[in-house]
Every structure is written in structure tokens, then in C-alpha cells.
Amino acid sequence: MNIEIPYTPRPGQAQLHGELQAKRWGVVVCHRRWGKTVMAINHLLRDAVLNTKPNPRFAYIAPTYRQAKAVAWDYLKQFAGAVPMVRFHETELRADLPNGARIQLLGAENPDSLRGIYLDGAVLDEMADMPESLFPEIIRPALSDRKGWSLFIGTPRGHNAFFDLYTAAEGEADWHTAIYRASETGILDEEELDAARAMMTPDQFEQEFECSWVANVPGAVFGKELQDIHEKGRINSVPYDPTVRVDTWWDLGVGDSTAIWFTQSVGRAVHVIDFYENRGEGLPHYAKVLSDRDYFYGTHNAPHDIEVRELG
After folding, report:
1. What does the pLDDT look like over 3-51, one tens digit per residue?
2. How far is CA 134 from its chain centroid?
3. In a domain, 233, yes or no
4. Model's pTM, two decimal places?
5. What per-residue confidence (pLDDT) applies to 218?
6. Is residue 119 part of a domain?
7. 209, 259 contact by CB (below 8 A)
8. Do 20 and 97 have their domain in common?
9. Does residue 2 form part of some domain?
């Protein structure tokens, strides 16, 4: 039968649907009011309608069950309601389609309650507010036997699991990554953005509308500078030159972590080629870390507090 869903995607949404079809995994960072929930529900619905596996299962997951209902339930009823013979289960926030497919809204506040399900596709909305264990321990195994897909969407909340996932996914063959900033999409006009900017702190505006990973992180050091070099593509793979000495730069930890940066000065540029961090270890451990790397070392630089602290 011909089924027409009453959904007209914006140009950016339409392009994203196409790009996600070619990838199994997607990480999409969106500014507020971009329309990520509408896009996500329709992405789930399209796959549910077209899926030919027996009894396919799909999930839209929000940080809490209550949030899933408030944000996505009306959208699911609106768009899935165009499918003939669809049945909605209000108490379970579930839509059953005539081909046996099922789309259900779930909350992430009790991850263990989701164990045991199987999935053909899942959307994790506002992943930055979810338990870090949810995907690797529960959702990823649920997708395995059906080789299902997953889409992670949200707005930044600093350098947490969502940020780690985005940075790890960049450049990977089976992953699609995208960032949609309000200054670039044109969805919100300048008058509205100016009004929001006037009522928010600069960091709040940068986080919510410009998708900054570091703007609203309390105590962040060099956060804006790191954000700038990340956006300019200056964070990438730098080769180790065995003819150039490697300098190390240490942050010594007694009750917290010890961190070591490894750099090479090549011309006027400083290449950060390696990094190591650990805690609860003595200096012999870190001496072995340096020895095992077999670099051609130059200067080992300790912080100022080495004069007043004792590590053994």
C-alpha cells in the first residue's frame, strides 16, 4: 500500500535522513529548535514501515520516561497516525504497525529495566544527560543479533560521554557525524537569536545555540581556545618524527591523576604526539611508561609544585 507520512523535512533534515541511510551509526549535535526530535521520530517511523524482518522493534530513548512522553509521544501519534491500522498503547507509549513493527518510547533513568530487549533501531535523545553505561552495556547488545542501527542526538553538556562519542566517531567509516549551529542553519532569524543572546550569558548561548562543547563548563581552562582549534581542523593525527627529540610535560598527582604530554618541536610548530594519564601509581610506573615508548627524549618538564610535593 502507499503510505504518506505528513512530514515535510527541512533541507538540513532531508539531507541528514539520506546520509544516515548509508551509515549504521550517527552522532548529530543540534542547536535548540532545530527539530531533532521530529526528525528522529520520522527516521524511526520510516524504517519501521519499510522493515521486512519479522516483528521489528524500534526505540526512542530520552533521559527520563516522563521526558520521552512530554517531548515525543504527541509527535509519534501525529506521524504514525497516518499508517492504516496502527494501534497506540497510551500506557506503554507504544505504536504497533500492521507489518508487526513496534516503536516504543523509553526512559534512561533505570537502565537495568531495559535489559533483555532486542532492537532494529534506536534513537538516544539528549544523550549527554544519560548514564554512560546505557549504550555500551544495554542498547549496543540489544542491536547485535539484528544488526540494528543507532542515532545519538543532543546538545552539548561539556566534555562527557556524548563528546567522547562524537570525537571517536569522526572519520570512522560506518559513522556519520554532524553539527548544526544556529548561526549556520538559518532556522532561527537574527532577531530571535539577538533576543536570546540578550537574556542568556555568553556561555549559555554558545552551548545551546552554537553547540559549543566547552562554553558552559565551570572551571574550564583554555576551553574556548580548544574549541576554536577543533573547529578549524587543527586537531588531527601528527606523525612521530624519530629524528626529533620528544619533550614531556607533567602534571603530578598525589590524590588525583598524573598526566604526561609528549611533544616535538618541528620548526616553529609544536606537535603534541602522545598523552598518558593514570592515578594511584608511583614514579617507577611512569618511568616504565616513558621507557616502553622508546622515544628519543629531550627535556622532561615538571610543574612548579614539584619543589613542594613528594611522590616518593
Report:
1. 899 999 999 999 999 999 999 999 999 999 999 999 999 999 999 999 9
2. 13
3. no
4. 0.77
5. 66
6. yes
7. no
8. yes
9. no
Pairing assessment for the beta strands 25-30 and 102-107 based on DSSP bridges: unpaired
136 and 256, same domain (yes or no): no
Tens-place pLDDT, residues 51-103: 999 999 999 999 999 999 999 999 999 999 999 999 999 999 999 999 999 99
Contact 209, 182 (CB under 8 A): yes
- Average pLDDT of the residues of the chain: 92
- Total domains present in the chain: 2
In the chain, which ranges are continuous DSSP H helix?
11-21, 36-50, 65-68, 74-80, 134, 140-144, 161-169, 182-185, 190-199, 202-210, 223-231, 283-293
Examine the domain organization and report whether 25 and 163 are in the same domain.
Answer: yes
In the chain, what percentage of residues exceed pLDDT 70? 96
* Among the listed residues 267, 271, 244, 63, the one whose alpha carbon sits nearest the alpha carbon of residue 155: 63
* Tens digit of each residue's pLDDT (9 = 90 or more) over 229-254: 877 878 777 889 999 999 999 998 76
CATH number of the domain encompassing residue 128 = 3.40.50.300
* Same-domain status, 39 and 175: yes
Q: Which residue matches cell numbers 512530554?
A: 70
